[in-house]
Amino acid sequence: MKDLLPEDLAKRRYVEDCIRRLFKLYGYDEVETPTLESYELLAAKVGEETRRAMYIVEDLKGRKYALRPEGTSPIARLVVSRFKAHPKPIRLGYIWDFYRYDEPQFGRYRRFYQGGFELIGSPTIEADVEILSIAVHLFRMLGIPSFYMKMNHVGILRSLLSHYGFGESVQNHILFLADKRRYDELVEFLVDLKAPDKLVDTVSEVIKLRGFDIHSVIDKARIVLKDYSEALRSLERLESILNLMLKLNSDVKILVDLGFGRGLEYYTGMIFEVFVEGVDIALAGGGRYDKLIEFYGGEPTPAVGFSPGIDRIVSVMEKLGIIPEIHHERLLLVVPASDRYSSDALTVSHQIRSKGVPAVTEVNMRKLKDSLSYADKMRFRYVAIIGEEYKDGLIVLRDMKARSQASITLDRLIEILEESNPCRG
Fold first, then answer.
1. Which of 45, 78, 100, 281 has CB atoms 3.0–4.6 Å from 266's, for a disulfide?
2. Do residue 338 and residue 198 come from a single domain?
3. What does the DSSP assignment read for 272-309?
4. pLDDT tens across 389-400, in order?
5. For the chain, how many structural domains are there in total?
6. How many Å apart are CA 237 and CA 234, to the nearest integer?
7. Strand pairing category for 380-386 and 395-399
8. Residue 218 belongs to a domain with what CATH number?
9. Confidence bin at 424 (pLDDT 50/70/90)
10. Phi-psi category of residue 319: left, alpha or beta, with phi > 0 → left and psi -120 to 50 → alpha
């Protein structure tokens, strides 16, 4: 975990502002849940690796909680408890902090920030494509070049395993190993379970199918899966999503990887992650989770969503040198020329702020030269000097950028400030 200095926060806020613009553009209502959630609620579906990484606490009554490690489970709990009668679909957005005991590395911290877009109550491929399109829109809005999407459908592997009687716990572990790209271990695990040779061979072939030529990958998969109707249905759904996605976003690079998994256990359908070429961490990820809300006690409710990783996006934008230079320029410092004008300086600052314009008062009663030096170091655009001229209704305004000054009235000062006020509107 790390302290966030003003420049760190400014970069994070830049990404957050883009996410919130997309909330408005696509009709997602922002919500917030407590940082602490029931341990049992979170542990039920977050996946074995995330379960091990959770920060766990007990309250004074011995009840077990965890700092939230991801956002979809709290959203599902929120929908069950607070949105029962809400018309479907429900579109919810969030920007929260999360906690996992991971090994810190590039773009990964134990306290981290993510956004979220959750589209709840629609089973259609159009809903899947909306989520995928928002992800594309975000990365284009941020000006991130050379990004691509990696996609799969977890129903392919789940249905293969289910066909031979392997339940959810085995399926989850297989997908966990796929998420970690431990493919040899995945095959060995099936062999140790005494899985039929045909299943082992089919899974071994499926997890090798990947490429940017999506139609070629789909065609090869169709041959491998010809004896498995449920797996074929999942493959056909993936193909339909890809076709519609490319119709809307024809220039997006998509890597179809049928050995790709995500560590969270609640996924039931399409899954995806967003990468930038040359960077080996996902900057966003998500997918369809049609059974999670029912699992938490709600009505059967299809859902799909994704989360952009804000810290990771900032790190990659810094690495690529594309994050905007964010200046912490302050607008106005009001300086009394001497102690006798201190109350006048406070009065002027108060009157300026009453117009919705930022103003900071010099409260250390420094010499004028020292106050101007302070204003320069702290990047104030203007300094208003309250001195002898004030009895005639005049204020000396110093433009720190132009290195010029003039005596003006308070009304004129406010006009000048309003023209360059960063808080306007």
1. 45
2. no
3. EEEEETT--S-SEEEEE-TTHHHHTTS----EEEEEEB
4. 999 999 999 999
5. 2
6. 5
7. antiparallel
8. 3.30.930.10
9. very low
10. alpha
